Each structure stands twice: as C-alpha cells, then as structure tokens.
Amino acid sequence: MRQGMGRGQAAELGLFIGGLAVWQSVKVIEKSEEQDEDGTLTIRERERFSNVLTIAYEAGKVAVSK
Length: 66
Hints:
- The chain is an all-beta fold.
- It is 0% helix and 71% strand.
- The protein is built from no helices and five strands.
- Strands 1, 2, 3, 4 and 5 form a five-stranded antiparallel sheet that branches.
- Strand 2 and strand 3 form a beta hairpin.
- The protein is rod-shaped and about 60 Å long.
C-alpha cells in the first residue's frame, strides 16, 4: 500500500490549547494479485482517499491517526 499527497489535495492546520493539529487527505492505492489455474496473473489496483490527523503536543509527544 502506497500513500502520498497528490495535486489538488490540501492540508488543514489548526492550533489548540497545548498543541498543533494537521488534518490532511492522502491517496491510498491498494494492490492485489491473483493467479488463475491456467497461470494468468491478474493485478488489480484500487485508489481511494483517506484522512490522516497528526497532533503535536506542547510536551513533545506526536500522535498520528490514520
């Protein structure tokens, strides 16, 4: 599975008491392979968008929610 920021995707940045939060959309590509009885290999890729929330606390701790 690959993840990355593509063109047209934005990140939202916010401040709150005790830290900093970044909310961003990421493109996720899920890849699967399947082989038939006759040896034919079928590769499928599914693209979707997901959200990631990253919080940096004033105390130095960082939390990532995917």
